[in-house]
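Can't paste images in this forum, so I'm doing it all in text. The chain is below; anyone willing to post the predicted structure tokens underneath?
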Amino acid sequence: MIMQQTLRFILATLFMMIGTPLLAGEAITVYKSPTCGCCSAWIDHLKQNGFEVTAHDTANMSTVKNALGVQPKHASCHTAEVAGYVIEGHVPASEIKRLLQEKPEISGLAVPGMPMGSPGMEGSRKDPYQVLTFDNNGNSTVYADY
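Text version of the structure:
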């Protein structure tokens, strides 16, 4: 009996010490317009998929995009940073998780524009769209098709 209680105490202590960080969501910082509803919907999508989101409203998104190396051809309505990567637009949380697992040598991921049916842009129709990788030179490749 005492052995079982001791074992439970040790396991509970270990869980608290190492289990909690493993369960914590990945921190992501989102920059968005204060009036954009689809940006808020994308943030909800991230939270529902386990990300810990810090959102910053800014009236000058072009300054944020320029500072983070997002070229106009990759631009959308919001920009985020996670683990040293830039996330531009309505990138699905599953692709961000994949990025964080694979850790490719790129600047980030982008879903240019605001395609209907992408996370945060749900509606009556679903348009095909691509998730692109991009680098500091503006080069991009297809990372996923939707």
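Residues 11-23 have pLDDT under 50 and may be disordered. Helices lie at 2-23, 37-48, 61-68, 93-102.
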